[in-house]
Specification:
By secondary structure, this protein is of the alpha+beta class. It contains two helices and twelve strands; from the N terminus they run βββββββαβββαββ. It binds zinc ion (ZN).
């Protein structure tokens, strides 16, 4: 962030009087431009014993498989965001069952919220952000070609819960390390 979106003045970084963190402050109009984490909402679209995955057509992780998920828009709920992302990336319609996973990624300023969802029908296809969309049984999940640690963790938790015959809410943190990402799950 370099310029003020209200008055176009060049921003400075400083700690405001009643604060304890550096913020981008506009010397022109005094606006403080707070930066906060973004919500990524998505679905685990299920059809019988299969899960719908999307092969990414965009960076980052182009060519890798993911669950449909993306940044929330203003004026929508988290469930609406998950449904919309599933429609955009996989042209798939879902009925959402429940919130399944909440993961924090503090170093990249994101919070993932993944919902369990049932595909309404098999009328799906690749959206503009996907090269291919496909249903996978657990044994066919391309574990080595998954796009993100959050997606791997979501799928691992999902299949583990399915084996136990009971789905619960999972929370965890994805922490960036020197050679990749570390996932710490907290079961609740
Ligand atoms: Zn300004």
């Amino acid at each position: 962030m370099k310029y003020c979106c209200y008055c176009s003045a060049e921003l400075i970084s400083a700690i405001p009087d009643d604060d304890n963190r550096h913020r981008y402050i506009c010397p022109g109009c005094d606006e403080i431009h707070y930066q906060n984490p973004k919500i990524v909402a998505g679905c685990i679209p299920v059809w019988e014993d299969q899960i719908l995955l999307c092969k990414r057509a965009i960076d980052p992780r182009l060519g890798y498989w993911t669950l449909p998920a993306g940044f929330m828009e203003l004026e929508e709920t988290t469930v609406e965001a998950g449904i919309r992302e599933t429609l955009e990336e996989a042209n798939a319609r879902v009925d959402v069952d429940d919130l399944f996973a909440v993961f924090s990624l503090p170093q990249v300023g994101q919070v993932y919220m993944m919902f369990r969802a049932r595909l309404v029908d098999l009328d799906f296809s690749a959206g503009v952000e996907s090269l291919e969309v496909k249903l996978f049984k657990e044994e066919d999940i391309p574990w080595d070609e998954l796009a993100f640690t959050t997606i791997r963790a979501t799928l691992q938790c999902y299949f583990e819960d399915r084996r136990q015959g009971k789905f619960s809410l999972h929370t965890g943190d994805v922490i960036k390390k020197e050679n990749g990402y570390d996932f710490t799950a907290t079961l609740v």
